[in-house]
Give the backbone structure.
Amino acid sequence: SQELEQSPQSLIVQEGKNLTINCTSSKTLYGLYWYKQKYGEGLIFLMMLQKGGEEKSHEKITAKLDEKKQQSSLHITASQPSHAGIYLCGAPDIYNFNKFYFGSGTKLNVKP
Amino acid sequence: GAGVSQSPSNKVTEKGKDVELRCDPISGHTALYWYRQSLGQGLEFLIYFQGNSAPDKSGLPSDRFSAERTGGSVSTLTIQRTQQEDSAVYLCASSGQGAFYNSPLHFGNGTRLTVT
């Protein structure tokens, strides 16, 4: 089965600092999604990457997809307390596109 | 418009009882997923419905788990003879066409199930 490994597992940063979260797949990636989850809530869709080398930005969050490395990175610039939460990457299983796998998440705390 | 709605938001049940969890997807979405999120764990795929096709049940952990989707809309996840290890947050997601077509999944807020 396909696995998505995220690093780091948790992160504490000072407000205003930049940070990067990585997601590495054990298999070829056909699309990669980033979600954010706050405690007690569902997952909020952030962005979707479909092609190698693709980069997307939303406000202060930028995500890139490196197909060769089977990896995606999520970068937050000038972090704010509102960025705190759990970030999860997800991707369709290359053997069964019905299945959509998620990484175990990166827990981010931003200290004011 | 309305997002994915799940009910109840919390459910406490005694070991051995049956429970039903409900998911009302976004109107017009043909794909519907159920996931389980245990404490400190990632999301575990359970089942996938796409239109009128037979569901992909390959993620259901045991035969105590079943799900149905009536009229291509509302879905119910049933857990029979609940066990303590079933305690988790059960998340439902819907998608316009499914992940295969690169259509994002939209999640509900989940049902937190506690088996005592």
Observations:
- The first strand of chain A starts at residue 4 and ends at 7.
- Residues 12 and 109 of chain A are 5 Å apart (CA to CA).
- Chain A has a mean pLDDT of 90.
